[in-house]
Fold this sequence. Notes:
The structure is a single chain. The protein has 431 residues and is mostly helical. The protein has a domain at 190-286. Helices cover 78% and strands 0% of the residues. It has helices at residues 16-19, 28-56, 63-93, 100-123, 126-152, 159-187, 194-226, 234-251, 256-283, 292-317, 322-357, 375-397, 401-427.
Amino acid sequence: MHSGTAQPPIALPRAAGALATDLSPPPGLPGEHFAAALLFFVAGAAALVLVAPDVAAGAFYLPRVAATVHLFTLGWIMLSIFGALCQFLPVAIGRPLRWPGLAHVSFGLQAAGAAAFAAALVTGERPLLYIGAAALSGAFVLFAANLGAALVAVKTRSLTWWALAGATVFLVVTPAYGVVLATNLHDGALGAARFEVVAAHAHVAIVGVVMLVVVGVAHRLLPMFLLSHGASERPARVAVALLFAGATALALPFGGGARHVVGGVLAAGGVVAFLAQAALFFRKRVRRQLDPGMRLAAAGVAGLALAVALAPFALTRGLAAPHLLSTYFVVLLGALSMFVAGHYYKIVPFLVWYHRFGPLVGKRKVPRVADLYSEKVATANGALLVTGWAGFALATAAAAPGLARVAALVLTAGAVLEAFVIARVARRRPA
Length: 431
């Protein structure tokens, strides 16, 4: 190339209009959520190695197992969701969070509360347990207020708006159940109803918060990342309605067994509708070759399908089949983890590119978003995560503690590698 030849202009990535606008927050706000979430992912996976024999034995009720579960749910999954909403909200509804400073406060409470709560479950320290529960409750309520204030100001109410509005309601309901369960660890007031309340708490959080956010956000992001066009959006509308109705039924403090059946059926229908919507997006995609991030997301979608298939058997048999119940939760939480992990490979590289390399487009040579990490390493990362998760689920179903520990080690290697790759992407700067 002759020295006088100008570099052809590079178009902004297709994600530019769907992940960032002039109203988007400084990268530090979603960035702090993502960094802490990845640390919890690694910590949760490492803890899973230690409790693998307990899980394989079906002893999901042990405090150390509960601590590990909360490292994944409160730390990894929820911090990832909060961080994604900080970045995504201005694009999704045309408005950012109402109070950005408050989002930093809710982040600090969430991260500190999740760590304190998990530590208290292991050590049995009652004051620390209450401190953790109070911090987490504060984080959920503050984020719900921040999100709700932004939603109220929007006049055009899309499917994503309704999904996030529903999630806002259950951001307040979920910690109420958590406080009751935290108190019960010491006073035992729930008695034999403890496991019923645990199941309700878990499913209200997953169905009412996590799945509603997943549907609302994936409704915008999956078509963009897959270059998918022309897919019907009716399944997503059905998913939002059924998930909200199901979570409402499960959260009600009355109705007995009938409430659980109705709520479970509605929630399962909502997940199936989401699966149908995701399948349409994947089927209608222009980009036939899936990148590492979308392969991980696809694995998560497949895991959700398996979880829905297992749910009727695991939840109706309950404590009579502890291995099946444990396997169900391993599959469900693993599926959500894979879906979230896949999106890190899409969102974080774009944000780094957008803020550090985008302003240089047309002025000098810049890398593509996909050049910010090695596709081979990301593929290996995905293989470790999926293999570890699938192996752990199989080991739990087979009551094989040795295999469970090996699988947990593989999953931990995948979590560590993902954290390493994303950290390297976050440090990339123009030379």
